[in-house]
Amino acid sequence: MVLLAACTAEAPPPPPPLARSDVNPNAFVGTPQEVAAKAQEAAILKAHPEMAIRNGPELVISYRGEPLVTYTDNPQGCDRYIVERAIEIRDPDSGTLEPIALVACHFGTTTNRYLVLPNSGKYNVMGDIAASPNGRYLATTDSTVTKARGAFIITQWPNTESRAEFPAGCKNIEWQSDSALTADCWRSEHPNTVNPDESDAVFFRAKVWRDDETWRMTATDWLARDGSPALSNRPYPLLAAIDKTGVDAPE
């Protein structure tokens, strides 16, 4: 009888599933990165109360003080919505500089970033992004899912469908004036010119400026792959951006 009772006893229930941050230490929720991001967001919202407010898990994004959209933290979608930056653009109607929110959507170990546009739409951001001091230009990485993805582009706000495109990748963008900037860039002679992992990729500190109607780029210093100064006898690249509109069809 004892043996029979032991054979028919119900198995204990399985343990509850662990939170994502426990399963994978690289997840965002529950990490020091989340604490730091929330502190940074609080400072941004304090400086720009007309752009966004936080109500617990709800993030209300506004433009010129008028609510556009509400994002709510949800384990089935974005575990956390975080405002990472305020980007000041020139409002085409009033001519004044207005902040728009750069929002990060964290889910598991993945993060998507985008600007919340004045029409509540999203402009995907794949890397660094910076607006010119007059708010008329955005310099960033092309985020379209096409052969141009990863190229360095400059768009004239608010027409984000048109862009001046360079066959290079860039980060650490710093505007020096309304028509000139510097950045750390790279390019390759392979078909994927913006792949920094190509064996022939070169890295350089770049100067980018608007010459009449054309955006141009040249190197001012060579860099090593890690961004430190490097020596080279090769001539500096001199590139002219190609003006494009819409989406390039992938090859």
Tell me about this structure.
With 251 residues, the chain is mainly beta. 11% of the residues lie in helices and 45% in strands. The chain has helices spanning 2-8, 20-23, 32-47; strands at residues 52-55, 58-63, 66-72, 80-90, 97-107, 110-116, 122-124, 130-131, 137-141, 152-156, 159-166, 169-177, 180-187, 202-211, 214-223, 238-240, 242-245. The strands form 4 sheets. Strands 8-9-10-11-17 form a 5-stranded antiparallel β-sheet, with no helix packed on it. The radius of gyration is 23 Å and the shape is globular.
How would a crystallographer describe the biggest sheet?
5 strands, antiparallel
Poorly predicted tracts of residues: 1-7, 15-23
In angstroms, what is the radius of gyration? Answer: 23 Å
The secondary-structure element order is HHHEEEEEEEEEEEEEEEEE
The helical percent reads: 10-25%
Structural class: mainly beta
What's the total number of strands?
A: 17
Average pLDDT number? 88
DSSP helical segment count? 3
Q: Quick one: overall form?
A: globular
What is the CA-CA span between the terminal residues? 73 Å
Strand order of the largest sheet: 8-9-10-11-17
Keywords, separated by commas or semicolons:
mainly beta, disordered N terminus, 17 strands, five-stranded antiparallel β-sheet, 251 residues, globular
